[in-house]
Design goal:
10 helices, 8 strands, alpha/beta, globular
Length: 296
């Protein structure tokens, strides 16, 4: 009897961190990224769409950025399944690896989840919509069917959501990244953890709601997994350092086959996102990736 109790306890601990229903079968994965969104802000933020996804899916507020806690190095890690020591993108604005990438693929770049999926299924519809042009250096644009840099976003804040909505309804992408360049600008100009920062988060939550509605109107909601996350947080008017306000970022996953109301207890790093997306899409990750799927 004592042995049985031990076994049951071990199984309970194992499944406590599991966010995945076996045979997930997701046909679409949409990742929405908010640049500079620190996990510290979630509890205080007025973000009803995000918090509904947290309730209807699984999440952690303890995902850690790689160092430095800056943009390009973390977006690269998110999409490349490894840290800067391996992919070589080491700075805020890296456009090429400052360190030689440990390996490169057929496109001459460290393997990304976009390239991995494109080679596994050349017919897959893959897109990336971003406000900061630096994103395009770390996603492998050769693997994309739709590559949109929203240059007018600073004058027309809703433009990014509009492009995403149109693309989702028209093309029903199998893999899509939509990256907003906020609340990072507010954090730099006015400050993190300020009223202006929370106002911007509320605005962004509205765009997220519009994108989710587009997925429903496109008729693919029941076969879609939604991921909401960030590259880094911030403190005062900056980021790049080693405080938890800079390092800890939200990760929220909901949709087809994902457990509801689950707090992800497994330790999670930025590069685990690529591994998680690969797992959702049935892809075998490259040996050079060090990420671990959080849906297992």
């Amino acid at each position: 009897m004592k042995k049985l109790v031990c076994i049951m306890t071990a199984l309970a601990l194992c499944f406590a961190g599991c966010t995945f229903t076996k045979d997930n079968g997701a046909k679409h994965v949409i990742l929405i990224g908010l640049d500079g969104w620190g996990a510290y802000s979630v509890e205080k933020a007025d973000m009803p769409n995000v918090k509904t996804l947290m309730k209807d899916g699984s999440y952690t507020l303890k995902k850690r950025s790689v160092l430095p806690s800056s943009s390009a190095v973390n977006w690269a890690s998110m999409f490349m399944g490894a840290g800067p020591e391996l992919h070589g993108y080491t700075e805020w604005g890296s456009k090429v690896p400052e360190l030689p990438s440990r390996v490169t693929d057929e496109d001459g770049i460290f393997p990304t989840v976009f390239g991995l999926y494109h080679r596994a299924d050349p017919n897959a519809e893959i897109g990336c919509i971003c406000e900061w042009d630096g994103i395009r250096y770390v996603v492998d644009t050769l693997a994309l069917n739709y590559d949109k840099h929203v240059s007018e976003a600073s004058e027309e804040p809703a433009a990014t959501a509009r492009y995403a909505i149109d693309y989702i309804k028209k093309s029903k992408p199998n893999l899509l990244a939509v990256i907003f360049d906020e609340p990072d600008h507010v954090g730099h100009e006015i400050g993190h953890d300020t009223p202006a920062y929370y106002t911007k988060l509320h605005e962004l939550d509205g765009y997220i709601g519009q994108i989710l509605q587009a997925v429903k109107e496109a008729g693919i909601w029941d076969d879609t997994v939604i991921i909401i996350t960030a590259d880094h947080g911030g403190i005062e008017n900056g980021h790049g350092g080693k405080t938890m306000m800079e390092m800890e970022t939200p990760f929220i996953i909901a949709g087809k086959g994902i457990q509801k109301g689950q707090v992800i207890t497994n330790s999670m790093m930025q590069f685990d996102i690529a591994s998680t997306i690969a797992d959702l899409l049935g892809l075998q990750q490259p040996q050079v990736w060090i990420g671990r799927s959080v849906i297992r």
